[in-house]
């Protein structure tokens, strides 16, 4: 069960990375949208590493 959760979480992380890259390239890395996307990515990355322990 944990392995499935980790895989799903990693897929979400990849999508958030793509979104962050897209927003940052269109609006700028310091835009509010990019900062929000970065924050969401950080949250998911932290969750991923907690599950991996």
Automatic annotation (TrEMBL):
* Any single Pfam family the record assigns to this protein: SpoOE-like
Question: What is the native source organism of this protein?
Answer: Pelosinus propionicus DSM 13327
Gene Ontology molecular function terms on file: protein dimerization activity
Which domain of life does the protein's organism represent?
Answer: Bacteria
Q: What is this protein called?
A: Spo0E like sporulation regulatory protein
> What processes does the entry annotate via GO biological process terms?
regulation of sporulation
